[in-house]
Design brief:
This protein is of the alpha/beta class. 29% of the residues lie in helices and 27% in strands.
Length: 309
């Protein structure tokens, strides 16, 4: 088969579409012939040498895909620990999801990673409730566009930060308020019950300032750095909490439970049309380097999709 291989840590130019050995299918796994995969920020970190795949997983990038189980010809999408940028990938069957009835196999490639990340953090960890205010940082990203729709579907008041050029599109997805982080201080604009944060250290202090009483911050990305100074007095005064969770490295059974929760609680919202995939553009998998350049520059809205050739 062919796959995108990282030749060495570095920029997008280190990605090569080459012939590689077929994957080996282990116990409880199925072999998926890949139709499409989607680019996530974690893929960029892996390419740079800053995010090593978990032991025993594929070394090729790609944390989600869609395609067909070769043994049964069943269309699925799947949450992966790696290997989505390839013509075939072995994946635990418990980490696969059916294609939503109203979507194509290609569109479904954009869902598993963001749906599992957003649901596990906003529902399992933060306990977002109807009527609460949700602040989503990076509203134009894959995580952001999904979280805006999910929060709105749950009945939350959704606020998001993004560049002004993306504001109208994000309002159409369900954001009630948009904040241009290049011109406005979000901490002065909103008091949020839940903050979904992709920035990490750079936003730590202002996230606490932006919290409402009993507010919850869930950190899912570190685009603004791994370290920040924590204002414990401010957090204590708000009676707030901060949590962080990686999805990729979680044990098999935890991931399987998240996938089941997404199927039960998120898939009906997708099939009803309350949540729709947001695809910025589609590129052949051999152009993975160009896809990484687009995501790195934040030129996209939603997901950049790679199509198997």
């Amino acid at each position: 088969m062919r796959a995108v291989r990282i030749v060495r840590p570095g920029g997008p130019e280190v990605l090569e579409w080459v012939e590689v050995p077929d994957p080996t299918v282990g116990p409880g796994e199925v072999l998926v012939k890949v139709t499409a995969s989607a680019v996530n920020r974690a893929d960029l970190l892996q390419r740079q040498g800053n995010y090593t795949p978990p032991p025993g997983s594929s070394q090729y990038p790609g944390l989600e895909c869609s395609g067909v189980i070769t043994a049964t010809n069943s269309p699925v999408c799947a949450l992966l620990a790696g290997g989505g940028y390839a013509e075939m990938v072995a994946v635990p069957e418990a980490h696969t999801l059916p294609i939503p009835r109203n979507l194509s196999v290609e569109e479904a490639a954009t869902l598993p990673e963001v749906a599992c990340t957003v649901w596990s953090n906003l529902v399992q960890i933060a306990g977002l409730k109807k009527g609460e205010t949700l602040l989503v940082h990076g509203g134009g990203s894959g995580i952001g566009t999904f979280a805006i729709q999910f929060g709105a579907a749950l009945g939350a008041h959704v606020v998001t930060t993004a560049r002004r050029a993306k504001h109208q599109a994000l309002k159409e997805l369900g954001a009630h308020q948009t904040i241009d982080y290049t011109e406005q201080d979000f901490a002065a604009e909103v008091k949020a019950d839940v903050i979904l944060d992709i920035m990490g250290g750079a936003y730590l202090d202002r996230n606490i300032e932006a919290l409402a009483r009993h507010g919850r911050i869930v950190v899912v990305g570190l685009q603004g750095g791994r370290k920040g100074e924590l204002n414990l007095a401010g957090l204590m005064a708000k009676r707030g909490t901060i949590s962080g969770a990686l999805l990729r490295s979680r044990p098999h059974d935890e991931k399987a439970a998240i996938v089941r929760g997404v199927r039960d609680e998120v898939w009906p919202l997708i099939e009803s049309g309350a949540i729709k995939p947001v695809i910025d553009r589609r590129l052949p998998m051999s152009q993975a380097a160009e896809a990484h350049r687009i995501v790195e520059a934040s030129e996209h809205l939603g997901k950049v999709v790679l199509l198997a050739e």
